[in-house]
Amino acid sequence: MNIAVDAMGGDYGPTVVVAGAVAAAREHGLPVVLVGDGSVVERELTHHRAEGLPVSVRHASQVVGMAEPPSQALRRKRDSSLRVAADLVKEGEAAAFVSAGNTGAAMAIGMVVLGVLPGVDRPAIAVLLPSLTGYTVLIDAGAIVDPKPRHLVQFAVMGHCYAKDILGKAKPRVGLLSVGEEEGKGNELTKDAFEELKVSSLNFVGNVEGRDIYNGNCDVVVTDGFTGNVALKISESLVEMLGAMIKEELNRDLLSRLGALLSRPAFTRFKKRVDYTEMGGAPLLGINGAAVICHGASPAKAIKNAIRVAAEWVQRNVNEHIKVALEDEAMLAREGREGGRE
């Protein structure tokens, strides 16, 4: 099961991506195809003693810039490392692709090259955020900023399947992000989506608020890509701010430094719980394949874990389960409409 990796993507390019890919091959035994400038990638591989590991290289002559318009990447860069990685999945030479490059281009190329699953109108980015009980799936985190109610229902189904397959939740609790818990709260999008979700077969717990992303009261939080991306970026900034403030206070005086030394194991565990690199990247759910999108500033550890996440996605047949779940929901909706006419 090859995982194609865009070796040229991200803020740090091949230096970090190759290190992460080699770590995934070494620690998890995952076959990796590094896609990018062959000479550059091979040079990086020599620094990591990758001989004997299941790591291969596929040359690509172009690179998609981090700020490049997705449409331009699609039309003018058919031999980019990102496009070639997606092509490998389409051609069956790889089971998934991973990229820390241009998010918009990765989404566009994923949709155009691989298409979407039956029953999916728009794909969605799912991120795992830490909570008091483990992780919460936030979907969508930036793929579709102005969805329709039916799209939110599809996001809910995809998030449900991901939480069930990857997080091991037998009956994931699905909530709709709104400005209040009461039915009828929110804008027209959330009100209409609420009506569809409450008659679905999902374990829909109703409207939830931002705090429910972290308090463990919900397993899947559904929202539009605009709101979800804002929530994600606020969360990332909050973690950074808290980390900096804690470090500052612990170094304020001798007594604080002594306390920090005694509490180091607890702080290490806390850091691991809130560290986004533990999950590596965010799956682009709904495409007819598997793609994991990483933060542009991802370190090698994040790349390694993104490759692991991509492999788990494929191994646990998440896409097949999404297709079946969407078919079931469509059948339920048809029966509901027919029953209403009677």
Task: Itemize the secondary structure elements and their pairings.
Elements: E1 3-6, H1 14-28, E2 32-36, H2 38-46, E3 55-59, H3 70-76, H4 81-90, E4 96-99, H5 103-114, E5 124-131, E6 134-139, H6 149-166, E7 173-177, H7 188-197, E8 203-208, E9 220-222, H8 225-250, H9 254-262, H10 264-274, E10 282-285, E11 291-293, H11 300-315, H12 318-341
Parallel strand pairs: 1-2, 1-4, 2-3, 4-11, 6-9, 7-8, 7-9
Antiparallel strand pairs: 5-6, 5-10, 10-11
Walkthrough of the structure:
This protein is α/β, with parallel strands linked by helices and 342 residues long. It has 12 helices and 11 strands. It has an 11-stranded mixed β-sheet with strand order 3-2-1-4-11-10-5-6-9-7-8, sandwiched between helices. Helix 4 (81-90) runs parallel beside helix 5 (103-114). The protein is globular, with a radius of gyration of 21 Å.
What's this model, at a glance?
The protein is α/β, with parallel strands linked by helices. The chain has helices spanning 14-28, 38-46, 70-76, 81-90, 103-114, 149-166, 188-197, 225-250, 254-262, 264-274, 300-315, 318-341; strands at 3-6, 32-36, 55-59, 96-99, 124-131, 134-139, 173-177, 203-208, 220-222, 282-285, 291-293.
Strand order of the largest sheet: 3-2-1-4-11-10-5-6-9-7-8
Largest sheet: 11 strands, mixed
Radius of gyration: 21 Å
Question: Given the structure, what is the number of helices?
Answer: 12
Shape: globular
Total number of beta strands: 11
